[in-house]
Specification:
By secondary structure, the protein is an alpha+beta fold. The chain has one domain: Alpha-Beta Plaits, CATH 3.30.70. The protein contains two helices and five strands; from the N terminus they run E-H-E-E-H-E-E.
């Protein structure tokens, strides 16, 4: 039986700038074999979209709830979406906003 493939859209807000949050997310996702992207949004938010097996995505959600040393996540929004399979790897995108 194969694992359910899914897509998750995660937004975190708090002390997430200047602490290596995007690099942390990219490293975690790459180590799990997930595909998608992460970027800064404004001054106090990071947004990520990832695809892969749902159990691994759930692990990424947990990792982003804490973040790297020095981060302080005050709020997290998680939206589960339908897997599309259109990412080649996991990348850090240019900041938005």
């Amino acid at each position: 039986m194969s694992e359910e493939m899914a897509r998750v859209h995660i937004r975190v807000r708090g002390r997430v700038q200047g602490v290596g949050f995007r690099a942390f997310v990219a490293t975690e996702a790459q180590q799990m074999g997930l595909r998608g992207w992460v970027r800064n949004v404004g001054w106090d938010q990071v947004e990520a979209v990832a695809e892969g097996p749902r159990p691994l995505l759930e692990r990424l959600v947990e990792q982003m709830r804490t973040g790297p040393l020095g981060a302080r996540v005050e709020e997290q929004q998680v939206e589960w979406e339908t897997w599309e399979g259109n990412f080649q790897g996991f990348e850090i995108r240019r900041s938005w906003g």
